[in-house]
Structures are given as structure tokens and as C-alpha cells.
Amino acid sequence: MKEMRRKDRKMDDKFAYSIIDKAEFGTLSTIDEDGNPYGIPISFVRYENMIYIHSAQQGSKIENIKRNPKVCMSFVGDVNVPAPGPAGELEEAMKDPKTLGKKASGKFTTEFESTVVFGNANIVEDNDEKILGLRLLSEKYCPWNMAYFDAAIENSLRVTCVIRIDIESISGKRKKYDKDGVEMKWGRME
What we know:
It is a single chain. By secondary structure, this protein is α+β, with helices and mostly antiparallel strands. Helices cover 29% and strands 33% of the residues. The protein has six helices and eight strands, in the order E-H-E-E-E-E-H-E-H-H-E-H-H-E. Strands 1, 2, 3, 4, 5, 6, 7 and 8 form an eight-stranded antiparallel β-sheet that branches. A hairpin with a 2-residue loop joins strand 4 and strand 5 (50-55). The longest helix has 15 residues, at 127-141. It is elongated. It starts with 9 loop residues before the first strand and ends in a 15-residue tail after the last strand.
């Protein structure tokens, strides 16, 4: 795994896991038979140091995982494009050419928080673990329908693939500004 270029934006593992937990969807990346990357948006749930996803029993991601279980996943938390500045800000900034460039570059940025994990994907064969993964997914995405869970499992467990991704490395990153417009570097929270 490559080192993060912007180490000043690196966050700790607790932060990285919190982004996974609040993200609605993630992107799973695998490698296809020709060595090309294949990324697909997925629903997922984290359980301890594992991520569960579900799938049909056939398809590109399943074939890719069977061939090469190494995967990468990315997750995005909060994103914010800063609002325009006050009226007259541009005219004021243009009075001082030395600071205009710095001020202008701040107008084309995005606040974000993200997490990237690397791990190994395993197709779950044990029915108890498959049910656990599906229960966790169902509780995350449709907790109001849990009264139907047992009937749904009885009907579809045999045709549903559950994949467990064992997290081997995790990194979280953030770009965020405080109320005064100063970027908050590593460890600085507001």
C-alpha cells in the first residue's frame, strides 16, 4: 500500500472507522481477468474489523474475487463546497496581488472526509455467518422490515452470496476549515 501523500490531512483509525460507519454506500474495487481495475458502488455494513456485502452468486465482482481476493474499498463521509464570500470580497482581494492567488485557490476547493481500506474478500460459505452478514445489512438499510427477515432468509439464503472483507489496512483523510477559514490539520477537531 502506498503512503498517503498529504500526511497533514491523515486522521487516526477511530476517525477512519467512523467514516465507514456513517457512509451510506462504498466503492468496491477488484481486478478483472485482464488485470484491469473494476470498481462498483455497493451497500455494505462494518462489523468489527470486517465489512459484509451481499451479491448474486455470479457476476464480475464474484469472478474477480475468486481469482484474486485482494480488494480496495473507499468511503466518503461529509462533503462541503464552501459558500461564496461576502459581497465586495473579490474587489478587496484584488487590491493586494500578493494574496490574491492564495485567496483565489481557496475558492476552488472542497471540504471532505474519506476512508480507504485494503483487505481480502472471502465468499462466506457458513450459513450462520451468511445470516449474520445479511442481518447486519438489513438492520442498517431497512430496520423497519426486520419482522420479515426470517421469512426472507428462508426464501433467498441459498441464492444469495455474502462476502466478508477482512480489513488489513485502513486510512482516513480529511480536509476541513474552521469558522475562521483556516484548514484544520491532523488531530484538530472543532
